[in-house]
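<given_protein>
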Amino acid sequence: MDAQLTAAQLEALGHVRAAAGPRTDPVDAVVTINFHPDRIDAGGRTVIAGLLADGRFRSQFETGISNGGLTAHPGGDRDRWEERMFGGAYQRPGVVPADRPKYGALDLRRHPAGAARRFGSAHLRLRPEVNTRATFTLGDSFHEPREAGVFDALAPVLAGLADHVAAAGPLDDYVEAQVHGPVDLARDVAALVLDDSFAGHLPAAETLADRYGIKLEWRAGPRLSPDEIDDEFRGPEVRPLAVLLCERWSRPFVDAELIGRAARAAHADPERLQLLKYLWHTLTVHGG
C-alpha cells in the first residue's frame, strides 16, 4: 500500500476483505471523487481553496459539508452505516475524524464527468495505487448496500452490476468507493478535472495543479436553458428557479458556474440549497 494506514483503517479493510470471497482479476479502472469546487466549507473557504491550503481531500466528518446527506457525525446515518460496513473499526476509542474514509466511485466507464457526477461538476482522478486501500459497494452507502468488496476481490459487487445500472438511473448507477487513509494531492491524485464554465473563475485551480504536480484538465460541461427543464424530473419548482437565476445574472442558460454562484449566495438557506441541488441534478442529466 502507498500510504501508512492507522490501525482502524487496516481493520476496516480487513473486515471487508474477509467477507469478499475469493480473489478476482483487477478491473481496469480508477477511483474518481466528484465535488463542487466553488462551494463554501465550514471554515468559510471555497472547496478548491481548502484543497489548495490543506493539500488533502477531506471527508465530511472533517469538513462539515456534503453534496449528499449531511449525516457524518456520531450516531448519524453515515456513522451507523460505517459501523456495520467496517465492523466498528471507526467507532473504536482514539479514532479521529481524519481517520474516516473518503468517498468516491470506481470509474468503470471513464465518464468525462467522473463516476458519480451527482456529487459535483469537478472531480479528482486518483492514481491506480489508491485502489489497493479502497473498499467498494454496489450503489451508494445511503441505501446501505450489502454487496461489498476490495479491488482484487470484487465478485460480490460485479455480480449484480448490470442489474444495478439498469435499475438505478443515470445519477445513481455507480460503484461507490471508500478510500481508507489520506487522499494526498501530491501523492494520490493524477488529475483535477473541471467543468469549462469555471474557466476564468477558479484561479486557485491552476495554483493547486502547479503546487501539487497534478494535471489540470477541462471538460465541456452541460448547459440547459430554462425552457428545456422537465418539471417531472425534480419537481415544478426547479424551472422557476432556473428562470430567476438566468434573469438575475443575465445568462441565457444554466451551467455549473451559475448554480455555484447561486449556492454561495444562499449558503445559509437550506431550502434554496436543496432546490439548487435538484437544479444541478437536472442539468447534469438533461443538459447538452
